[in-house]
Amino acid sequence: MRSILSGEHGAVLGVLEKPKVMPNHVLVKIKACALNRADLNMLTGATHGFIGGLGFPIGMEWAGEIVEVGEGVKQWQVGNRVMGAGPGAFSEYTLGNAAWIYPIPDNLSDEQAATLPVALQTAHDAISSNGQLQADQTVLVVGASSAVGLMAMQVAQLLGAKHVIGTSTRAEKMAQLLEYGADSAVNTNDEDWSKQILKLTKRKGADLVIDFLAGPLFNQTMSVTKIAGTIVNVGRMAGETGMIDFDQHSMRRITYKGVSFRTRSPDEIAAVIQKAQQDLIPALAEGKIHLPIDKVYPFEQFNAAFEKMKANQHFGKIVLSL
Prior knowledge:
Elements: E1 2-5, E2 12-15, E3 25-34, H1 37-42, E4 47-48, E5 51-52, E6 61-69, E7 81-85, E8 93-97, E9 101-103, H2 110-114, H3 117-130, E10 138-142, H4 147-158, E11 163-168, H5 174-179, E12 184-187, H6 193-200, E13 206-211, H7 218-223, E14 225-233, H8 246-251, E15 255-258, H9 266-285, E16 293-298, H10 302-311, E17 317-321
Parallel strand pairs: 10-11, 10-13, 11-12, 13-14, 14-15, 16-17
Antiparallel strand pairs: 1-2, 3-6, 3-8, 3-17, 4-5, 6-7, 7-9
Helix pairs in contact: 3-4, 3-9
């Protein structure tokens, strides 16, 4: 099978043996796969959790059709359209853990479906399980123009948030945030962005903050978090380190949680996916939540797709179609 592999100087197209189905897994013929920022780090052999390495197939998000079912699998059949997140997604076939995949609603194309698994499980886990969102709370998504950020705003609305605020660093994206779940949008390049959020929340701050930025913005993020509120850190796009005002953290009594799938057991990941599936697949089928596709490339044009992602000018997901 054709597969995109990491190489010393970047991704290369290689040929690997088609995976053999294993117990509790399904073999999937991939129809489309979506790029994630973590893929850029793996192009030259870096690892992301337990996946990656020089010469290994890259990619972590796919959609396709089951062509073979392993021993012990009861919930899936040959011919089912499914989507999931897992290693080796940029290939013609992949093995999917039967407990880690989602059904594709009939109203979605393979390209649309490929954009969803990472965002669904990451956003739902951050907001519902770790954020413990309560009805009528205010949610702030810091760095909301990423795919997971766009999904987080929609999931917050779906699960009953009273007011959802999204932030971006680009003025042209403010209106786009409003199309994907934000009631209000704030530009964090504005010197007074934290004052704007306090004004929107009547100076109380947000009950729940989903933070994709961290880094030097963190102290300001704490300042717009409600006293006894919660911050869930999902990403560190603004920086992995920074000065922390521990006094502010203590005085505001903020609960700060870090989340990652890279340090979870297979059973923990399966539990996250089951919860996301229960709450979000019906909403997908009804068209209540979705993600934009910036551009679809033929599979062979993967390097052009990676270059587009590196430029960081896209809005929505970049997809490879097989």
